[in-house]
Design goal:
single chain; 304 residues; two-stranded antiparallel sheet; 12 helices; mainly alpha
């Protein structure tokens, strides 16, 4: 028996060695794609944020002046505030409703699979298409009130919230369902035996065990809220405008990603360096918030 065990170990070693020898060859395409598709564009874009340019091959070094102009741009700062408010409101609503729907659909109700499919389907529709669909819906609804989503920034804000929630709740619901189904049955039974009611079981047993799902969903909804672009472009395009005392115009429903886009592709090609600086600041902001959120929520996860 010992001899057969030794021979099996030798054979396993002989198989593993060729795999280890050729593994770098199989990893090379992935590494090359990562370098070409992410690392090079990132550092090239970072370099261009310190330049004045019309094309990526025709640039002039200007230092930090692009960042100074970006931070002095009232429209950029307004978009930051608008986006932050949108991200917080959408984060709360998406996760509360997604968890509530997931919790309801894991209570052994009839037709649960059909409801899961129906709730998930909006996530399969592209953002631009969703924006135009909801634009027509809001035009029909607000037409009775002699107004438009493009004429009132409050309607624009809540229109974006409704659209985003409608699209993302189903996706987050699936993640929460997976988390709820992984809650140990013995813990639920123990809570019932101890006399815990439904709310006590939910907050003391279920939610602590679903924290990994909450971490993922919070991360996704927070970053998606800050990165929202196509729905913003299709639904409101940043309208309506407000004129500042200095004569400059601010798009009152313009989010950060759309502001960067409008700056880069505006009529003044000299502002492309400023747009690139805004994009770098945008990346730092989202990355910092995402890391802080992951760090905060992971500390609350229950180790099983």
């Amino acid at each position: 028996m010992k001899r057969s065990h030794d021979s099996a170990a030798v054979n396993s070693d002989m198989i593993r060695r060729p795999i280890q020898r050729w593994s770098p060859l199989f990893l090379m395409p992935v590494v090359a794609a990562f370098l070409i598709g992410f690392v090079w564009p990132f550092f090239h874009g970072l370099f261009l944020s310190f330049c004045k340019f019309k094309t990526t091959s025709n640039w002039e070094w200007v230092g930090i002046s692009n960042y100074e102009k970006a931070l002095a741009d009232q429209s950029f700062m307004y978009s930051f505030g608008f986006t932050a408010l949108f991200a917080v409101v959408s984060l709360v609503l998406i996760n509360v409703f997604a968890f509530a729907v997931a919790y309801a659909l894991t209570q052994k109700i009839r037709g649960a699979n059909i409801f899961r499919t129906v709730f998930f389907m909006p996530n399969l529709i592209g953002g631009i298409v969703l924006g135009y669909i909801w634009s027509m819906i809001f035009d029909g609804f607000l037409g009775y009130y002699q107004t438009s989503i493009l004429m009132d920034k409050s309607w624009g804000f809540w229109g974006l919230i409704i659209l985003t929630c409608w699209q993302q709740i189903g996706y987050m619901m699936i993640i929460y369902i997976a988390g709820l189904q992984a809650v140990p049955e013995d813990m639920l039974e123990a809570a019932k035996i101890d006399g815990a009611n439904g709310w006590q079981t939910l907050f003391k047993v279920t939610i602590p065990n679903v924290m990994p799902s909450i971490t993922i969903c919070t991360f996704l909804s927070l970053t998606n809220g800050f990165k929202l672009f196509d729905q913003n472009l299709a639904l409101t395009g940043g309208y309506p405008f407000e004129i500042n005392p200095d004569g400059s115009a601010v798009r009152t429903t313009e989010m950060l990603a759309l502001n960067i886009y409008n700056t880069f592709y505006g009529q003044n090609t000299a502002s492309r360096g400023v747009a690139q600086a805004k994009a770098v600041l945008f990346f730092i902001l989202v990355a910092t918030l995402a890391i802080a959120q992951l760090s905060a929520t992971r500390k609350k996860e229950v180790q099983q």
